[in-house]
Amino acid sequence: DTGVSQDPRHKITKRGQNVTFRCDPISEHNRLYWYRQTLGQGPEFLTYFQNEAQLEKSRLLSDRFSAERPKGSFSTLEIQRTEQGDSAMYLCASSGNETGELFFGEGSRLTVL
Amino acid sequence: QKEVEQDPGPLSVPEGAIVSLNCTYSNSAFQYFMWYRQYSRKGPELLMYTYSSGNKEDGRFTAQVDKSSKYISLFIRDSQPSDSATYLCAMIGLQGGSEKLVFGKGTKLTVNP
Question: Among A42, A56, A109, whose Cβ lies nearest the Cβ of B99?
Answer without folding.
Answer: A56
